[in-house]
Design a protein that fits this description.
Number of helices: 14
CATH architecture: Orthogonal Bundle
Strand content: 5-15%
Membrane topology: Peripheral membrane protein
Keywords: Endoplasmic reticulum, Heme, Iron, Membrane, Metal-binding, Microsome, Monooxygenase, Oxidoreductase
Cofactor: heme
GO cellular component, one term: endoplasmic reticulum membrane
EC number: 1.14.14.1
Low-confidence stretches: 136-154
Oligomer: single chain
Helix content: 40-55%
Structural class: mainly alpha
Strand order of the largest sheet: 1-7-6
CATH superfamily: Cytochrome P450
């Protein structure tokens, strides 16, 4: 992540005080991070802009109506979709990722190669030697509310099939590509519109660098104000639009208003929670339209009501990729703010207008800022 972040820094040094399409830039960053951390591939999408890994990733997020229809049908009626042969993703994309998994695993097995990435985890899973493990350092460094609900280690061992392994690749890419890119884009946008918060973050980074030295996995969790900035970005612009849960036992919801009637939930009922509605409710977060990272300072965190901040969900079925996503976001924001002032331009929208009909948060007209190198 650090090397890829430095690629972004070098790119921006060559485009100072130019209008930069932040959304496109962040997509290329998350693409390269996933290629490396997930598959052991070294890709530089800033140089090779049309590399196959990036192109196939873009194809997975096609917003054409046929693609949307297939996704909705597969999600709501999986048995029917399978019966009539609905394929959510283009055959080229499916074949590409399947070949990556099989060819890389075959090479590593034959040559006794090990690398700390997802392919290695898949190989361990395929051999039945993968265990769900954790340690105190992991839990300490991932950040505040987003990841406090991480699964506890169970030590389960299971052997996976080849198709299941390929499916994990799709899930890893789907979960880590667009949502992380959107989070980074909107964080940079908010910092451009809120120079006070940006300067406070810069001062925190400089102090951190002087006291702790180079950024590492072990010390990144100590940069508290960066965590505050990302938490506040996720509060205003949650990647999880809706969180659904299946009721496991009878439960009666109280009347929603005076004179209303209670509602009884039964086992098997699905409850949909609108994350954005909760996180932008002034009863939970005063002045919700204001970008205020100070909400998440240690002295203020106690004011946040439980289950009113849910960018990664909560409980035993929260997003298991939150730790990776947080690291991915933190590392790049650290290097960008350390090296540049983020400046709003005439093309920087305020307020943001979102594209209708999108599954994820996407800014209408793009997200544009300029970057000026710090002295």
């Amino acid at each position: 992540m650090i090397d890829i972040s430095k690629n972004i820094v070098e790119y921006l040094k060559g485009h100072q005080l130019e209008d930069v399409d932040v959304d496109d830039l962040m997509r290329r960053y998350t693409n390269d991070v996933i290629a490396s951390a997930g598959f052991g591939l070294q890709v530089n999408s800033l140089v090779d802009k049309d590399n196959e890994f990036y192109e196939c990733g873009q194809a997975m997020f096609s917003t054409s109506w046929p693609q949307r229809f297939k996704m909705i049908l597969a999600a709501q009626f999986p048995t029917l979709a399978k019966k009539i042969g609905i394929k959510v993703f283009p055959q080229k994309v499916t074949r590409f990722f399947r070949e990556i998994v099989t060819s890389t695993m075959d090479y590593r097995l034959k040559n006794n190669v090990e690398r700390p990435d997802m392919i290695q985890l898949l190989m361990d899973a395929y051999k039945g030697t993968l265990k769900n493990e954790s340690n105190e350092s992991d839990e300490k460094n991932v950040g505040f509310a987003m990841t406090e609900e991480m699964l506890k280690p169970k030590g389960n061992v299971r052997k996976w099939t080849q198709d299941e392994l390929t499916a994990q690749v799709f899930i890893f890419f789907l979960a880590g590509f667009e949502s992380s890119a959107n989070g980074l884009t909107l964080c940079i946008h908010e910092l451009a519109l809120n120079p006070e918060a940006q300067e406070k973050l810069y001062e925190a980074i400089i102090k951190f660098k002087e006291e702790k030295g180079p950024l590492t996995y072990d010390n990144i969790g100590e940069l508290k104000y960066l965590d505050c900035v990302l938490n506040e970005t996720s509060r205003k612009w949650s990647a999880a639009i809706i969180v659904d849960r299946v009721c496991s036992k009878p439960y009666e919801l109280p009347p929603p208003r005076e004179g209303g009637k209670p509602y009884k939930l039964q086992p098997g009922d699905i409850v949909y929670n609108s994350v954005n509605s909760i996180q932008m409710d002034p009863e939970h977060h005063p002045d919700p339209e204001k970008f205020d990272p100070d909400r998440f300072l240690d002295e203020n965190k106690h004011k946040i009501k439980p289950f009113t901040f849910l960018p990664f969900g909560a409980g035993p079925r929260n997003c298991i990729g939150s730790r990776f996503a947080l690291l991915e976001l933190k590392v790049l924001i650290y290097y960008i703010v350390l090296n540049f002032k983020i400046i709003k331009t005439e093309k920087t929208l305020s307020p943001i207008k979102l594209q209708p009909g999108e599954f994820n948060i996407k800014v209408l007209g793009g997200t544009w800022t300029q970057f000026e190198a710090r002295e």
